[in-house]
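Input sequence (283 aa), recorded before submission:
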Amino acid sequence: MTTAAKLELPIREIEWSIKRIEDRVVELENFDISTVTRSTPELKALSAAIAGTLERAFGENTSAYLRYSEATKLQHVSITISMDGQRRHVDYQSPTQQNIARSIALLKAAQSSLKEDLEYLQQTSEPDQAAIASTTNSRRVFVVHGHDEGARELVARFLMQLSFVPIILHEQANRGGTVIEKIEAYGDVGFAVVLLTPDDVGCVNGGTPEPRARQNVLLELGYFLGRLGRNKVCVLKRGTVEIPSDFAGAVWEPMDGNGWKQALGRELEAAGHEIDWNKVMRA
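Predicted structure, token format:
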């Protein structure tokens, strides 16, 4: 199997990955092993969370990811064959406890690897490198979203599959700043995807209330149109939602099927990014 190259993340993303891996370790350490049965939904959710964290940290199908991928295997699967037809008691808890211990050890190893990468970058980077680096071909993509978590995760996972790094505001450290200060701090990206989803309702005075996007989403849309330019912003519209006339010049695509993936890939390519179309078609 051909593996992809390890993601080369900036310092902020490495710090984020180290913190998220620590979160997964704490979740595993706090897991109640007494709840384990033949099929435990909580374990499946933990496995999915670990897989997502490792993909964000190392990239999908990379040698680094595969090195630690066994950490996602938590649930013990037992196949019991009885010659006399009698049911046998199966101990799911002890093997699952061993799987959890293995997962914790692998995650801590992954965390140590990232800490080494972080130390290297901190020692070799110029003091003001982040300030002077051009973001024209940056693989960081800011994802502006409302309350539709499903749409947000679909877009984030798709971007990761194309080797982009999705920046989701609520996942970033506050550092005592306001929302707009966080946007400014983490807005050094090469592209932005804005999700217009029908989270609110509104209308002119005396009119009929209609579905519309949250006001903060429109604010951030305007911010990135001004900061990046229209050719580096793609708007994805899910369901029935009003689009303000002031933003009619922005490129927007419906997100009600799978065509949005090809549309977003074209916009990213038009903005100067290299796109693997085989991955787009498989996503």
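Checked by second reader. The chain has a mean pLDDT of 82.
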